[in-house]
Predict the structure.
Amino acid sequence: MSRHSAAEAIRAVMVARDLLRIVRDVDSITTTPVFIDGDHGPRTVVHVHLADVLRLPLAVDADTHRAAYAVLRRAYPRAQWTGTEYRYDVRPGLLAAVTPAMPGDLR
């Protein structure tokens, strides 16, 4: 079990409140930076995946994904959203960088 400072606990409650107003069943959010080479040159976009308590994707529109991402960006302005994959768990209020798994034979 992790310990929160008072400020972290307040932030977790506020983020949960804002996210649950946007999409009631959200339990976790994963943000994945995707590097694309489009018509206007290379750029990075961030895909946002909303999941329920069973880690199943939620069927919501693009505006809902954008709104959830905006809540996280406001709550964690120093996170490297376009360079690191993150997972936010709503219940404990934890944002963690996702470490990609490496197949055993490549270690």
Remarks:
- The chain has one domain: 6-96.
- Residues 6-96 form one domain.
- Strands lie at 28-38, 41-51, 86-89, 94-97.
- The chain has a mean pLDDT of 89.
